[in-house]
Design brief:
Elements: H1 25-31, H2 34-51, H3 63-84, H4 90-97, H5 101-104, H6 106-129, H7 131-151, H8 155-173, H9 176-183, H10 186-214, H11 220-241, H12 255-266, H13 271-297, H14 305-309, H15 315-332, H16 334-351, H17 357-385, H18 390-443
Length: 451
């Protein structure tokens, strides 16, 4: 039996009782009937019995709220810093282990592949084992496996440890938003989600920048030890700061329920195409960042690792465009703006074909801007189209999103070796042409859902 969770003293419709304009507080209190009082008391007792905490939410401005947001911001920061810190190191790994660019890209691709696979089950496991338990174990394990990566003697063992990092991180990526939606007051949920996502984006940028700059003065193994140590501190702070779940109700893990939800989403006329867009867009985005370093380290640029690492500062444009893109989708409709965002990615990719560094940076910035706008639009569109099991629909979208990072991110290395940077851009453009075709011929023609 499903019960709606209510804040203490809330009415049955989820809002505070509104006083009549012409009544004084004293008369309002006198006019409250014993039946209403009894009903309110029974409702609060029922909620308290269900949750054990009286259905209390964490309210914005409270001490618990501040600690919650500190914990989840640091966790999101550490998650994506650990995931993407290896991207600027790929050229060095190619030299250190005598491997080509495609093989070097596996240091990121195996992580995103296992993260994608983990997303299919970790959300459901948290339903049975608890949100904080899964997230704490995920972040602690990812930090330890990152430290282990720095100590691995050969390439195969490095890839194994990176695969375990990705699998570990799936436990936080799949559960953090669910925790927020359960524990925070609805009045604080929007800004809280924004803070958490900002931590993700800043972590992704900072992981690249920190490793790219430090590797100019330190061995890559020392860089990984530093990042792993920082993540370990973040994990310990997370476990100390994050309040235990109050409104969590354990549910047994059900493989049958998992499969039935997947079948339901696949039958939707729009969701499978949105999953495909996640694959294609993330594939194009990661491919560019995987191999732009190889280009800028070679003629005619010959830039240092530190300068190449700083290119990730363009992520700041994406932090803005994700909010802007969502606002445009809300105002004009997802299907009317999404294809335009895909065109921005394509224009950015083509601009990097020019040699002047100003145009290359402008192209990378434009592609980043378009990617985050498109990703924000597609992910929110998934939530609107999924009438039931929305958490599972979001996990499926993220599964294909990270799968695109793994498959396309490594495949782009083949085109780098065949035709250099024009080959990489050609591969990216093919992915984006497919994304544009789906956006125009499938998603643009969807009948909007009015809810």
């Amino acid at each position: 039996m499903n019960h709606r969770r209510l804040a203490p003293n809330a009415s049955a419709c989820g809002t505070e009782p509104q006083p009549d304009a012409d009544e004084s507080p004293a008369s309002q209190q006198d006019n409250r009937t014993s039946v209403e009082a009894a009903a309110g008391s029974m409702l609060e007792d029922e909620v308290a019995a269900l949750t054990g905490y009286g259905g209390r939410y964490i309210e914005k401005g409270s001490r618990e709220y501040r600690f919650t947001m500190l914990a989840l911001f640091s966790a999101g920061f550490a998650t994506f810093a650990l995931l993407y810190c290896v991207q600027p190191l790929m050229p060095l790994l190619s030299s250190a282990f005598a491997i080509d660019a495609a093989q070097s890209s596996l240091v990121l691709s195996v992580s995103t592949a296992t993260l994608a696979l983990g997303l299919l089950v970790t959300g459901s496991l948290s339903d049975a084992l608890g949100r904080k338990n899964i997230m704490s174990l995920a972040l602690l394990s990812a930090a330890l496996f990152t430290l282990l990566t720095a100590l691995m003697p050969n390439w195969s063992l490095i890839l194994l440890s990176r695969a375990l990092v990705g699998l570990s991180l799936s436990g936080l990526a799949a559960v953090a938003m669910t925790y927020l939606s359960e524990e925070l007051s609805p009045r604080a949920l929007g800004v809280s989600m924004g803070i958490y996502i900002a931590g993700n984006a800043i972590g992704g940028m900072s992981g690249r920048v920190i490793s790219g700059v430090l590797v100019d003065v330190l061995p890559w193994r020392a860089v990984m030890l530093i990042l792993g140590g920082l993540a370990l501190l973040a994990a310990l702070a997370f476990m100390r700061w994050l309040p235990a779940s109050r409104n969590f109700e354990p549910r047994a893990f059900s493989l049958q329920g998992l499969l039935s939800g997947i079948r339901l989403h696949v039958k939707d006329p729009g969701l499978p195409w949105l999953f495909a867009e996640g694959f294609l867009l993330m594939g194009a985005f990661v491919t560019l960042f995987n191999y732009i370093g190889y280009r800028l380290l070679e003629a005619p640029y010959f830039y240092s690792q530190a300068l190449v690492g700083l290119i990730s500062v363009v992520y700041l444009s994406g932090i803005y465009s994700s909010t802007w893109g969502g606002a445009m989708a809300d105002k004009y409709g997802h299907r009317n703006v999404f294809w335009g965002f895909v065109l921005l990615l394509m224009a950015g990719a083509l601009l990097t074909l020019f040699q002047p560094i100003v145009l290359v940076i402008a192209g990378v910035t434009l592609l980043t801007f378009g990617f985050f706008a498109a990703h924000a639009t597609a992910s929110s569109w998934v939530g609107r189209r999924a009438s039931v099991a929305r958490g599972q629909a979001a996990s499926l979208y993220l599964f294909f999103y990270y799968l695109g990072s793994s498959v396309a991110g490594t495949s782009g290395g083949i085109f780098w070796h065949l035709a250099g940077w024009p080959g990489v851009v050609g591969f990216i453009v093919v992915l984006l042409i497919a994304a544009l075709a789906i956006a125009w011929f499938r998603l643009h023609r969807l009948v909007p859902l009015h809810r």
